[in-house]
Structures are given as structure tokens and as C-alpha cells.
Amino acid sequence: MRPSKRPSDEMRKVTLERGVARYAEGSCLVKFGDTHVFCTASLEERAPPWLRGQGRGWVTAEYSMLPRATLERTRREVNSGKPSGRTHEIQRLIGRSLRAVVDLPALGERQISVDCDVLQADGGTRTAAITGAWVALHDCIAWMKARSIVSGQPLKDHVAAVSCGIHQGVAVLDLDYAEDSTAETDANFVITGTGGIVEVQGTAEGKPFSEAELIELLRLAKLGTGKLVDLQKMAVT
């Protein structure tokens, strides 16, 4: 039995609340159970210096965790002078995931910066961030289209992410912290609305996992991201 008493293929309750930031062009408060992430998307009317003159835009992301998002207070990374390796890796993952579904030339020489701030953490912060970031990005692009800044369909598809793992010998979907901290295998899947795989991160904490177990984790991930994409569609309509 899972600590949360959920069946192996059941996700935590997920909500996507749009328009939660007054000033951002797009925003979303995403909740995966007790994991809450505040996502904003901000338009900048200039491309990164290394892209100038190339006629295409960019989507980038930053990720951070509030000091008391966890059981014990963690020090703000700004006080250490640089983000941790974990933070750097997660924000790069979020950026890659969003760029996979954006027509960058259609943005013109502009940048959309997506900020994901973890208000409360109970496992799966990166997957919640990617799922909520897509909603914020969608609304930012809709804001741009409404003002004739861009035309066409710069956003090509949905993208969502979910964690899966092997806990007490059983493949399970959407791990909370109690499972994540004791799982034999922990994996994160980023999948588009049309089923394309953007990224897979999988690690065996104990014994190596088998090919059959990987296929089962992928099956669960597709089930979970399918539900998340349905929620994204309902949120933005």
C-alpha cells in the first residue's frame, strides 16, 4: 500500500489556477497535492545577445524554492552567490521542455522568461513546474497575439511532466515525498500532448531496474501526462 493510500496509477489532486499574478503576461498556480508552484511568464522585447540578428526568439526558465517550502528552512540561494547544481539542472529542464513545443522563429527577436517558484514542496516540484509553466506560457503568447505582437500559432503543442517510480517493488505514478525519499527507482517524464517524449530522467537508488519496469513506468507516465494535458486544455478554454 502506498503511504497516500492511492492506487498505483492514481495521481494526487491537481489544480491549475490561471491569472494569479497581476503584472505578468501569463501566470499559473499549480498544485500537485501538497506541492504548490507559482509560475509566471514575462515578455521581453529583445532576444538574448547571442541570438540577435537571427530572426528568432527564445524561451528560458528560472526555478527557485522559498526558504520554508520544506519541513526545515533552507537558505536562500541568492545569499550563496549562485544557484545550486540541482536548481541549475531543473531550470534548464523546464526551459528545454517549453522550447520543445514553441515555434521560436514565430516569436520574432523576443524572449519569454518563465519563473517557477516553489511555495510548498512535497515531491515532484520539477514536474509540477513544467505543467504549470506551460499554462503561464500559453497565456503570455495569447496576450501577445491579442496585441498583434505575434501571429499564427507559436505554441505548437501542450507539454506536461510527471514522476513515476518503483516503490516497494511496485511501479507507481506521481510520487509524493514519502515515496520519493524511499523509492528504489525514481523517474521523471516530460511528454507532449501528442505523445512525443521530450525528456526522461531515471535513476535506480537500489538495485537496477529492468527494461520491463521501464516500459511500465513509461505507460504510467503517458497515463499521467494525458490527464495533465486534459487539465491544461480545460484551464485555458
TrEMBL record:
Family: Belongs to the RNase PH family.
Pfam families reported in the protein's UniProt record: RNase_PH, RNase_PH_C
Classification via NCBIfam families: RNasePH
GO biological process, one term: tRNA processing
Protein name: Ribonuclease PH
Keywords associated with the record: Nucleotidyltransferase, RNA-binding, rRNA processing, Transferase, tRNA processing, tRNA-binding
GO molecular function: 3'-5'-RNA exonuclease activity; tRNA binding; tRNA nucleotidyltransferase activity
Keyword tRNA-binding assigned: yes
Positions contributing to phosphate binding: R86, G124, T125, R126
Domain named Exoribonuclease phosphorolytic: residues: 10-140, 159-222
Signal peptide: none
Assigned EC number: 2.7.7.56
Annotated InterPro entries: ExoRNase_PH_dom1 (IPR001247), ExoRNase_PH_dom2 (IPR015847), ExoRNase_PH_dom2_sf (IPR036345), PNPase/RNase_PH_dom_sf (IPR027408), Ribosomal_Su5_D2-typ_SF (IPR020568), RNase_PH (IPR050080), RNase_PH_bac-type (IPR002381), RNase_PH_CS (IPR018336)
The protein's role, per its UniProt record: Phosphorolytic 3'-5' exoribonuclease that plays an important role in tRNA 3'-end maturation. Removes nucleotide residues following the 3'-CCA terminus of tRNAs; can also add nucleotides to the ends of RNA molecules by using nucleoside diphosphates as substrates, but this may not be physiologically important. Probably plays a role in initiation of 16S rRNA degradation (leading to ribosome degradation) during starvation.
Catalytic reactions of this protein: tRNA(n+1) + phosphate = tRNA(n) + a ribonucleoside 5'-diphosphate
